[in-house]
Amino acid sequence: MLQINSIDLFYGASQALRGVNLTARPGEVTCVLGRNGVGKTSLLRAIVGQQTIQGGSIHWEDRDISKMASHARARAGIAYVPQGREIFPFLTVDENLRSGFAALPRSERRLPSETFKLFPVLKEMLGRRGGDLSGGQQQQLAIARALAMQPRLLILDEPTEGIQPSIIKDIQRIIALLRDRGDMAIVLVEQYFEFARDLADSYIVMERGEVVLSGDRAEMMEEDVRRYLTV
How many domains does one find in the chain? Predict the structure, then answer.
């Protein structure tokens, strides 16, 4: 389980996160909602170790990882699909997938058997450069690369951004399948409310670096959440 307790994060004199709490459990999707600039990506970067927190703690599988380096967190089973995908445009699809092996011992460096069942389009494009793929195909590649790490915590930052509706449905189906396996915790940042609502087991809503709403899906009041998503 991922347990985030009252974390603070600063960029210089500017405070990006204020006392943020979040829990993510295996077999569940925890959604982080809010407008642009409210601290959602900062929260994810704190979880994966790309930003250092100045207060509070982050525990993963009963270990305090608050000061752990990002590469050590990856080896501990934490995978991150960043906003904008960040695939390697001049590497082939196959090479991009294999770049996900970096956190694994050499003996475990093989693609999960389900990779091409979840992402059949990638099997047809293994020799194609990542930069030649469409936005939706790149997003599928970014998720597949993260899964190559065999993670126990998967973190996704706005996977629907700039993606055509048909691919959004595919990504939604894949996230639901991964959740339903029961061995992976998933943290999902989204602005697309319907997508998040349909996947969420629990949620938090952020405003100005703070959590202003939280609860289980059954407790979610749609109009209250939407109030913090509209501009």
Answer: 1
